[in-house]
Structure formats: structure tokens, C-alpha cells
Amino acid sequence: MNVAGRHYRTIWLNEDGAAVDIIDQRWLPHAFRVATLRTVEDVAVAIREMWVRGAPLIGVTAAYGVAIGMREDPSDTALDAVWETLHETRPTAINLRWALDEMRGLLRPLPPGERAAAAYGRAGEIADQDVELNRGIGRHGMEIIRSIAARKKPGEPVNILTHCNAGWLATVDYGTATAPIYMAADEGIPLHVYVDETRPRNQGAYLTAWEMAGHGVPHTLIVDNAGGHLMQRGAVDMVIVGTDRTTARGDVCNKIGTYLKALAAHDNGVPFYVALPSPTIDWSVSDGLAEIPIEERSPDEVTLVWGLSENGEVERVRISPEASPAANPAFDVTPARLVTGLITERGIASASPEGLRRLFPERSSA
Length: 366
Hints:
Shape: globular
CATH architecture of the largest domain: 3-Layer(aba) Sandwich
CATH class of the largest domain: Alpha Beta
Number of strands: 18
Distance between the termini: 36 Å
Order of helices and strands: EEEEEHHHHHEHEHEHEEEHEEHHEEEEEH
Strand order of the largest sheet: 8-7-6-9-12-17-18
Number of helices: 12
Structural class: alpha/beta
Radius of gyration: 20 Å
């Protein structure tokens, strides 16, 4: 994507060829800052504290973290320690474990002296693969948008509701849920996107709105609870969200509040689509409610918010009484029965074991 006329990915190798540069998303939309990650602990902090976020980008960042670790110490003991250190940072997003397993599986058979170079090479491949997966999601998802547009009056926009940020900033480039939106916009299809704020971290307001503005996509920021109201009044043609983990039967674990959007869409006959690259499918899990661990994050994310002050400084302020405790489950699970379709790089699947295995027959024995 472009930022002030320059193309950026969300993560790239530093010019020294060893450290990794990232867009530090904590400061958006008020400041665009790049951070450099030089150690495994830097990578762990960046993932845990959400300098980077979004399941695909977390996975790529972890892969580079393994490479940095192998440069520091290529021993078997260090390889296992890096895996454990990075795996514990975010328990819900399956791409993290997928990337770590990919890296360890590649490196374990190699002599220690070859591991660092191989790790950097594979991390780069995973990053490039993410871009191509998202392009595929965009192509298939755009067909849904195109079909809705064909039923509209000339010039009437397709109204799309998003949740959280499943955009360019959640991946290496293009995004998952946003890839079809950007491709449709580039094709000239009239669009309008309702961007919900997505408490508690306001990733819709901070990140998705910033992306839409940068790409020139007409959009309106709304509070989380306005989505159902808009659907009741026929103002939403489709909902498209991302996912941090999807089960083998099509249950979807995504940012907290996704389930409520799916319920409202189901009640009002609005198509509810989930965009996901195949590494986000956890073939070992069937029952999302019972088997997916839900990350509990700091109560501070609920009780405190970041914003731009009148003097132009990015500051954090409290919005609740200090004596009031807060809970902060980061994700919820949307049952497959509420999902219209899963948009993958291979096509659109029904949210069912049969639908997923039709697109991924090599997983039939999983």
C-alpha cells in the first residue's frame, strides 16, 4: 500500500540484512513511525504489545524472529527456546504457531552453521506468500462485490460493513477482508464502507479508517453498536471480516464483537463473509467454542484510550473510574451456521467441513 506516495509493506528487512523494520501501529493514525527489531525479545515485545497485529502479520513477524534468533545462536536449544518465547506472546492467532512450526521443521535437520541463512530465506518466502494469498482472496472476494453491484442502480454504491482491522496493516500487504474492497475500488466499482470503531483498541477507527482514507475509498466511521441498526434499515449489502483462527468445520474466531455482527447479519438477511488465507485454518480443531483459547488482554485497554490532544501530542487518558475493574477478552467465536461463506485464496467455501475440504482436498486426511 501507499503512504504519502511511497509503497510500503508492513514488515521488511533492515538495510543491514539482519534486523527487521516494521510499521509501529501503536501510533497510527496520528503518527507514522517505523521501529527496528534487532533481537528475539524485540520481536516478542512487538507481537505481545501489538506494535504489529493481525494473524498473518504476526506469523510473518514470528518467522523473522526465528531468523534473528538463529543469527544470535543457531543451536537446537536456542531454536526451541525461540519457539517457546514467541509462541506464548499471542495464544489465539493460529498463524503464529503455523509460522513457528514451519521454521522449526525446516531448520531442525540442518547443521547449525546453515540455519541463519535458511531462516532468513524462508521468512522472506512466507512474507511474499502472504502477499500472494491476499491477492487471491481479493480476486475471489471482488466477484461477490461485483455481483452485488450488478443488481444496483447505476452509480449506487455497494455498502460494506467491516469489523476491526483485517486490512493491509494486519498482513504484509493488501489485507484479507480489505483486499476485495481495494481491488473493487481500483476497478471503479462504486463502494461505501462502514468502518466500526472496534473497541477496546479502536483498530477500526485508528487503522481501517486510516487505510480507507489513504486508498481513497469512501467510508464512514461508526460506533460498534450501530452495525445492527444499519442492517435493520437496509443500509448494508454485505459484511466482510477477517479471522485469527478458523476451525476445520468453519467456526470463526475473530476480534471480540464479530459474533454480534454475525447475529445481526443473520437476523436481517445480510450476507456475512469471512476472508482468510489458508494458514489461518486450524485443521486440528473442530469446535471453536470448546477448543480455541481466547486471549485475555490487559484491563488497561478497556479503561484507557489513546488519542491526539489539543496540543498535538498523542496521549493516553482514563475513561472509567479507577475503582471499577474491567475484563478484556480479545476474541469471540462465530459459529459456522452464521457464516455465508469463507473467502480463501483458492475460492469461496461454505463454512463447513465439506466446503473447506473441497478447496483443500490435500487436508482430507487431517
